[in-house]
Amino acid sequence: MGKKYYCDYCDCSFHDSKEGRKKHNLGLVHQRMKEAHFKQYTDSRTKLAQELQKTPCRRYLQGFPCKFGDDCRFSHLLPHEIDHLRYAGDTSPLIV
């Protein structure tokens, strides 16, 4: 048997070959898992800037679950959560 390749993002393993790795890395599941992994390390200012560009998701604000989840093109942050990001992203020193 040949070597196995393990993908940390997807938590799966498969037969290691150049074609197999290329096919896996171009796959939709891998792309989404990789994006989700790096999204958790986004700083507050970047996340705030991204969320302010989006309009609020009406379905989410009405208390219903959004079928798109994290892939929704609308913002799923409530006003108090945006204020929290503003506070967390404000790292400018106080001038006395």
TrEMBL record:
<feature type="domain" description="C3H1-type">
    <location>
        <begin position="51"/>
        <end position="79"/>
    </location>
</feature>
<feature type="zinc finger region" description="C3H1-type">
    <location>
        <begin position="51"/>
        <end position="79"/>
    </location>
</feature>
<keyword id="KW-0508">mRNA splicing</keyword>
<dbReference type="InterPro" id="IPR036855">
    <property type="entry name" value="Znf_CCCH_sf"/>
</dbReference>
<protein>
    <recommendedName>
        <fullName>Zinc finger matrin-type protein 5</fullName>
    </recommendedName>
</protein>
<dbReference type="InterPro" id="IPR036236">
    <property type="entry name" value="Znf_C2H2_sf"/>
</dbReference>
<keyword id="KW-0479">Metal-binding</keyword>
<dbReference type="GO" id="GO:0006397">
    <property type="term" value="P:mRNA processing"/>
</dbReference>
<dbReference type="GO" id="GO:0008380">
    <property type="term" value="P:RNA splicing"/>
</dbReference>
<keyword id="KW-0863">Zinc-finger</keyword>
<keyword id="KW-0539">Nucleus</keyword>
<keyword id="KW-0862">Zinc</keyword>
<dbReference type="GO" id="GO:0005689">
    <property type="term" value="C:U12-type spliceosomal complex"/>
</dbReference>
<dbReference type="Pfam" id="PF00642">
    <property type="entry name" value="zf-CCCH"/>
</dbReference>
<dbReference type="InterPro" id="IPR000571">
    <property type="entry name" value="Znf_CCCH"/>
</dbReference>
<keyword id="KW-0747">Spliceosome</keyword>
<keyword id="KW-0507">mRNA processing</keyword>
<dbReference type="GO" id="GO:0008270">
    <property type="term" value="F:zinc ion binding"/>
</dbReference>
<dbReference type="InterPro" id="IPR013085">
    <property type="entry name" value="U1-CZ_Znf_C2H2"/>
</dbReference>
<dbReference type="Pfam" id="PF06220">
    <property type="entry name" value="zf-U1"/>
</dbReference>
